[in-house]
Amino acid sequence: MAMSVLMVYEPLGSARDQDYWRSYIKFYEQFRDGPATPQSVWYGREYETFRESFSAETGVAGDAIRDCFFFRDEDGEYYLTPVGRKANVNMFTAEDFIPLEWFLMYRGEEKKYFYTHSGWGAVSRDAIYYRTRLRDAALRLEEAGRDIEAWTASGPGPVSSIVEGLAAGAGSLRHWLSSFDENGFVLLNYGEISTRIAPGSLRNEDSVSELGNALLLARENDPGRAGTALMALVAKWDSINSALTGAAEKKSSTLQ
Questions:
Q1: Exposed e or buried b for every residue in 170-202, given b needs 16+ CB within 10 A?
Q2: Choosing a second label site near 15 at 20 to 30 A (CA), which of 51, 185, 198, 242?
Q3: Given its phi and psi angles, is residue 94 left (phi above 0), alpha (psi -120 to 50 degrees) or beta?
Q4: Residue 79 in 3-state DSSP?
Q5: CA-to-CA distance for 120 and 140, rounded, in angstroms?
Q6: Which residues contact 20 (CB under 8 A, 6 or more apart)?
Q7: Domain segments of the chain: what residues?
Q8: Per-residue pLDDT at 256
Q9: Furthest-apart CA pair in the chain: how many Å?
Q10: How many CB atoms lie within 10 A of CB 224?
């Protein structure tokens, strides 16, 4: 099983319990000398030591400690997403695939990588991620929604069900994002799915642009080529899903 994840990071200034999170972030940065990301790894009793030290420093009881992922932008502002809750409204996951509508929120040039230090100074790409301002993601979903509506009206033919799934998924995402501060960020992390993409091919994985190209062709009133481009993208993700599950199990779109 490999998980991908979609995460909303809200501005620290908009978060509940700001004083707690400021203390947590300050202590974490001192303890780990860096931010808490989905790729952060704890060794041995390191996490237990962190919690014990944080409790001693702040007076927060061990069973009351809450964790978060966080980062700081180029202006020095902090953004966070709480973790560890049974139902986390900031986060959605997908198993063994990435719902196609998630790609609608990004642009190809926003692609980034988590890196692994593999000894002797070597650094390798570990996982793909995209991060964009929430307000930009919402605008892109609105734009994609108009394109999809026009495509559906023109009769997308053999890809009708896929296009309809995109429309429904985009609508669900717009509704989800509307409950957060638009100054936040939404991050798509390929996570463990990256392990089934050959390391040399991570550089060429660009589903964001491939889906964008299909919508552009539809917008230019070329539904035939748009459908071909969309089917090629679906076939690629069917192949990735099959490699992960060992079976041709097609995953349906949208939020889990």
A1: bebbbebbeebbeebbbbbbbbbbbeebeeeeb
A2: 51
A3: beta
A4: strand
A5: 42
A6: 60, 66
A7: 3-245
A8: 40
A9: 64
A10: 11
Strands 123-133 and 3-11: unpaired
Of 135, 99, 39, 42, nearest in space to 250 by CA: 99
Q: How far is CA 135 from the centre of its chain?
A: 15
| Helices assigned H by DSSP within the chain | 18-32, 46-58, 134-153, 160-177, 207-219, 223-245
Give pLDDT tens digits for 6-46. 999 999 999 989 999 999 999 999 999 999 998 888 999 99
Q: Kindly tell me the sign of the dihedral angle through the C-alpha atoms of 20, 23, 26, 31.
A: negative
Q: What tens digit of pLDDT does each residue of 178-236 get?
A: 999 999 999 999 988 988 777 677 888 999 999 999 999 999 989 899 999 999 999 99
User: Cα–Cα distance between 185 and 118 in angstroms, integer?
Assistant: 30
Q: Residues 234, 242: contact at Cβ < 8 Å?
A: no
Q: What is the DSSP letter of 109?
A: G
Out of 118-132, 134-148, 159-173, pick the least confident. Answer: 118-132
Residue 217 CA to residue 149 CA, distance in Å, equals: 14
Place of tokens 């620290």: 12
CA 113 to chain centre: 12
